Amino acid sequence: MNRRGPAHLGFPLRVDRRGRVTRADEETYLRGLVEAVLFTRPGERVNRPDFGSGVHALVFAPAGDELVGATQALVHGCLQQWLGDLVRVEDVRVRAEEATLHVDVVYRPLSAGTGTGASRLVTVSGAPGGAP
Fold first, then answer.
1. What per-residue string of b and e applies to 38-75 under the rule 16 or more CB within 10 Å gives b?
2. DSSP β-bridge partners for residue 101
3. What are 37-83's pLDDT values in tens digits?
4. Contact 102, 72 (CB under 8 A)
5. How far apart are alpha carbons 13 and 58 in whole angstroms?
6. How far is C-alpha 95 from the chain's CA centre?
7. Euclidean distance between CA atoms 122 and 129, whole angstroms
8. Out of 28, 59, 127, 129, which could bridge 24 as a Cys pair, Cβ 3.0 to 4.6 Å?
């Protein structure tokens, strides 16, 4: 462990100019994990077919209060299931504005080595109902 806290392997795995595997700090690592959960489609990973969220399918659902509620429940549930030992999901904010669906996730790292401030991550922005 270094003075700045634990370092994790960078994702995607790559080599830097010195020929070493890139590393990521705690904040970047956790953000990558949240993105991996939300943007992976269930069935996409061979050895873990139930991993992912399926949120991509909601982008094409009809806009409305039902879409907002379903998206909040899905995002919160998937993050709790897959990352519940690493982060605490504090809030999932979903809003549908005309032809765009916005999802903001506020989470707090559970590790003692990180700061106490919450991180905010904009995770999804797409067109509900398939509108351009």
1. bebeeeeeeeeeebbbebeebbebebeeebbeebeebb
2. 96, 126
3. 988 999 998 999 999 988 888 777 777 788 888 889 999 999 999 99
4. no
5. 29
6. 17
7. 20
8. 28
